[in-house]
Amino acid sequence: MPDPVDATLRLTHVGGPTLLVETAGPRILTDPTFDPPGRRYGFGWVARRPTVDVAVLHLGCVRFPVTGPLRYSMTGEQAVATCRALHPRVVVPVHYEGRSHFREGRAAVERGFAAAPDVRDRVRWLRPGGVTPVD
């Protein structure tokens, strides 16, 4: 494991809303885009797909009446496809309940992960106010 005292933080804009956050320890991919699963991105300095330690996935299938069918976060099915494309070590679902604009709550997201045996064991559900280990 790299030196935990190293405070280096690297941010790589992958495209769209996607950002790769790298520290001395884990690499975190945030807001994966909704491109077809398996799409490869060039990062300029590396032509291979990065190793993703923790994928924080914004779910809930958020939509607003004014924008019609446009979604602002993934469905559970899209989350599974994203995990299959990225192969993250840990998956952290967030942003899927608590507001009226969510079209899929935790139960729907859980069903999506439960139907994917190759993904479900990597999912870590956060508890509000709690600490969730990701190692």
Short description:
The protein has 135 residues and is of the alpha/beta class. Helix content is 18%, strand content 19%.
Walk me through this protein's architecture.
- It is a single chain.
- The chain is of the alpha/beta class.
- It has one domain (10-120).
- Helices cover 18% and strands 19% of the residues.
- It is built from 3 helices and 5 strands.
- It has helices at residues 76-86, 106-114, 117-120, and strands at 10-15, 18-22, 27-30, 54-58, 90-94.
- Strands 1-2-3-4-5 form a 5-stranded mixed beta sheet, with no helix packed on it.
- Helix 1 crosses helix 2 (106-114).
- The longest helix has 11 residues, at 76-86.
- The protein is globular, with a radius of gyration of 15 Å.
- The model has no long low-confidence stretch (mean pLDDT 76).
Q: Strand order across the biggest sheet?
A: 1-2-3-4-5
* Main sheet properties: 5 strands, mixed
Number of domains: 1
Q: N-to-C SSE series?
A: EEEEHEHH
**Low-confidence regions:** none
Q: Could you give the distance between the termini? A: 12 Å
What's the total helix number? 3
* Quaternary state of the chains: single chain
Strand composition percent: 15-25%
> How much helicity do the residues have?
10-25%
Shape: globular
Mean of the pLDDT scores?
76
